[in-house]
Amino acid sequence: MNPIGTVIRFDNVSLVREGNFLLRSVDWTVTQGEHWAILGLNGSGKTLLLSIVSGYMLPSKGIVEVLGHRFGHYDLRKLKHEIGWVSSALQERMYVSDTALETVLTGRFATIGLFDKPTSQDNHYAAELLVQMDCQHLADRLFGNLSQGEKQRILIARALMNKPRLLVLDEPCTGLDVFAREALLQTISTVVESPKPPTLLYVTHHTEEILPAFEKSLLLRKGEIYAQGSTQTMLSQPVLSSFFDAPIQLHKNDGRTWLSTGTNKTKKGDHETAFS
Ligand SMILES: Nc1ncnc2c1ncn2[C@@H]1O[C@H](COP(=O)(O)OP(=O)(O)OP(=O)(O)O)[C@@H](O)[C@H]1O
Ligand SMILES: [Mg+2]
To answer: Can you give the CATH number for the domain in which 205 is found?
Structure first.
């Protein structure tokens, strides 16, 4: 049974490839009204976790329910119309010769490239989203000519085109300078503060990107949940020092948490340490 208000439920979920556990025994519930940050080193399994949430990968073991749909009992191709997805990898797949407005419109059909004819209502909504993202001046510019930060804002507008109930942001600030990053985080705040916002999942390596609206956090290490709970508790010195297995210092400002390591010790990605 799916209790009303459960957006995601993972029950003892594992993903195994070539004998390796890429995700192991993941138990995780996201409830309506929560926004989650997912933190972990390279190779810890963050993108794989999101690929399962979005129906692009099936677990090897365990029960997954997303937006009331139990995997194995639902046509997962339909799920991509209910979930918005933004990542730097997606940027590279979009058509460089589509305008920003056309790129936003592709979100209506969950396609790369515009092959269907949008209605006038679609066009209106896409234009409205461009205003919401403060990108109306980019509407007629070619996607390929936009800066990284502008592209990411257009991709967020695209992801919102189908009024998704779940918005997945996989390291959306990768490659942005400090100002573009703050502008993108401001855009994300706008989405969170909109009436009836989608549930947001925000993947990052950087604690300072976790906005106060992300009240829950999940710490992933070597494919396992290391800890989960309130962001305030997860982003605390004892939890993060032990999570990263390194001495760290935290600096809190304006509801956000900056981390410094205070050591020259370099740390390998999780699966590098796990399997090599
Ligand atoms: N299809 C696959 N088959 C086998 N191994 C895979 C597959 N996809 C990912 N992996 C491995 O699983 C591990 C976790 O990958 P994942 O992409 O989820 O990491 P991540 O936490 O998102 O890392 P990053 O921060 O670098 O994006 C990595 O070691 C990766 O090489
Ligand atoms: Mg990743």
So the answer is: 3.40.50.300
